[in-house]
Design a protein that fits this description.
alpha/beta; 9 strands; Rossmann fold; seven-stranded parallel sheet
């Protein structure tokens, strides 16, 4: 008789990150059960139409050894009742799933949070670390910080090991949001007034996130029931350097011109794009020494990650 493969339930399995994490887990020897909103008819999948405080996880968690929780409410900050939606899914939904997993005998629970629990900018101070006091930014960051707090409390009375991963902007094939917008601008040759920006920002290739999740599930040195890890590529670069790297990966010439940062900041404020100010002009550095200290190493470099992201 063949030895039983360990089973991992992955929420958000058919999302951007999930489509990279699931194959990585399969290659590592896990039997993956995919939690999806719409069935695709392939492999072991369970349909979970909504994630919230009342979701029935009974069947999905049967025989499961580990949970990787990727699903989240994101990019909906302008929706009516947005605060309730974020808290229902990202906070209450996460904690309900974790309690159900612990009751079902799940041994490991990995929650992909966000580095935005630290805020949006760390200019003038050292890189963020896991021990810093949290100052979450926006509804998304606040809902994730509240989920982390609840998971920490849950871990004190449970045998289930909980790992929280805090990534910065995740890029890769199929990424949306700011990375997709910046990639599109570079591909069409749009001139960008960012040549004078002198910042440093952390980014994370989706392949590196997937490899860390695989590593963490197999790490025999995990002794604490609750651990937090900041995660990023080893290179943390300025916004203009990222654009130059993106242009190189796409075979384009970067079109950057100089605009005084004060003027650029003024224009972004006029148009109400404070989020763009933080993501383009501000610094966002992360100390990833804790993740490296457990023996994990990024699978791809920044340049390799960008080439893979633009390979399609």
């Amino acid at each position: 008789m063949s030895e039983r493969k360990p089973v991992v339930l992955v929420t958000g399995a058919n999302g951007f990150v999930g489509r990279h994490v699931v194959p990585a887990l399969t290659r590592a020897g896990w039997s993956v059960r995919r939690a999806v909103r719409s069935p695709e008819g392939t492999g072991d999948e369970v349909v979970i139409e909504t994630i919230g405080p009342e979701t029935d996880w009974t069947g999905a968690l049967e025989g499961v050894d580990a949970v990787v929780h990727l699903a989240a409410r994101v990019h909906h900050k302008h929706e009516e009742h947005a605060e309730g939606l974020y808290r229902s899914v990202n906070t209450a939904g996460t904690l309900h799933l974790a309690r159900c997993a612990a009751a079902a005998g799940v041994r490991q629970f990995i929650f992909v949070s966000t580095a935005l629990v630290h805020g949006r900018c760390n200019a003038g101070r050292p890189p963020f670390s896991e021990d810093d006091m949290l100052k979450p930014s926006g509804l998304y960051g606040m809902s994730k910080a509240e989920a982390e707090s609840g998971l920490r409390r849950l871990s004190s009375g449970s045998e289930m090991k909980i790992t929280v991963v805090r990534p910065p902007l995740i890029y890769g094939e199929g990424a949306k949001g700011n990375f997709a917008l910046l990639t599109r601008a570079v591909k069409i040759g749009l001139p960008l007034p960012l040549a004078g920006i002198r910042n440093r920002r952390a980014f994370l290739a989706v392949q590196n996130l997937a490899s860390f999740i695989v590593w963490r599930l197999a790490d025999p040195r995990s002794t604490s029931n609750f651990e937090v890890f900041l995660l990023a590529d080893q290179e943390q670069v300025s916004t203009p350097e990222l654009i130059q790297r993106l242009a190189g990966a796409s075979g384009k010439r970067p079109r950057l011109f100089y605009m005084q940062p004060q003027l650029l900041n003024f224009l972004l404020n006029i148009f109400g794009r404070l989020d763009a100010h933080d993501s383009l002009i501000g610094s966002f550095e992360l100390d990833v020494s804790k993740a490296l200290g457990i023996g994990w190493q990024p699978q791809v470099s920044l340049d390799e990650g960008l080439r893979l992201a633009l390979a399609c």
